[in-house]
Amino acid sequence: MGKRIIVTGGSGKAGQYVIDYLLDQGHQVLNLDLTPLPAPFSDRVHTIRVDLADSGQVYSAFTSHFKLTEPFREPLDLLPDALIHLAGYSRNMIVPDNETFRGNALSTYNVIEAACRLGIKKIVTASSVTVYGVSYAEGDVDYPSFPVHEEVDTNPMDTYAISKVCGERIARGFARRFGTDNYVLRIGPVVAPHEYKGTVFDSYIKTPEKWAAHGWGYTDARDLGQMCDLAVQKDGLKFQIFNAVNDEITNYTPSAAGFLARVCPDVPHTREMDARETPCTNKKMKEVLGFRQNHPWQTYYET
Ligand SMILES: NC(=O)c1ccc[n+]([C@@H]2O[C@H](COP(=O)([O-])OP(=O)(O)OC[C@H]3O[C@@H](n4cnc5c(N)ncnc54)[C@H](O)[C@@H]3O)[C@@H](O)[C@H]2O)c1
């Protein structure tokens, strides 16, 4: 059955596709963002302009109608069933570091606090594989071990990833306090449909040894929609973290483990990997939530 879902940051690169997917599954969606949703996505969903770093705006928007009608016809007391929190600065150096931290950590605190206090039972929060500490390190550092699963230590040195680690801790603490389902998605580099060709993706394939920073993985924006939907549908898991990436390593190696042993000779392997398993493994996403990718990158590179 369709649910009422608030998406934050739905006007952004990932959010547009996430909202599109959720609407296609029959959900009702309200988008909360500082900026408008571009067409054609904007025809399908209402956006309220909200600064999530302002807690009062968050509470007010969370208790809003989903649709602008004249007159209003929805009951006033309908709570959302779920919150999907995507909003934030999506990398370092969009703004100065202190603002990256303030914006991301405070917005995440505000939305999780308001959701829990208002009684929203399912909260899905966007984190990032950058929390594993390689992407924005000062210089080359190694992953702790392969495959990089959700229990691996997160010890980043950059502000963006530190803000994401803080968001994960907020989700964890509030799940413990309120008994809600707070699921964290550690998203990989997001790829929109038009971004497979003539972009950095070509370089993933041609010079894969350069791409430790992206974990030799990616997250298709449409498949991220499926991941969010699965997280909304699966109840009762309390606090959980999922690597939210697609299935396969982003180059043509026949052996992911062999490739990683060559480019990262000092990193231990803690189990055998599937032949072309993505290094920041998505096994938990597949086994616990039932994710089945619809958009393998090879579709765009068939000769
Ligand atoms: N793009 C990636 O490769 C990537 C990778 C891993 C994780 N993520 C995470 O996924 C989420 C979505 O990423 P994206 O690429 O769509 O980012 P994006 O920058 O395209 O979109 C983020 C949206 O959040 C909104 N926003 C920012 N601060 C806000 C605030 N205070 N109040 C209301 N809205 C605010 C922006 O207006 C924007 O529309 C982010 O949390 C990001 O950190 C992204």
Automatic annotation (TrEMBL):
This is NAD-dependent epimerase/dehydratase domain-containing protein. It comes from Penicillium atrosanguineum. InterPro entries: Epimerase_deHydtase (IPR001509), NAD(P)-bd_dom_sf (IPR036291). Residues 5-205 form the NAD-dependent epimerase/dehydratase domain.
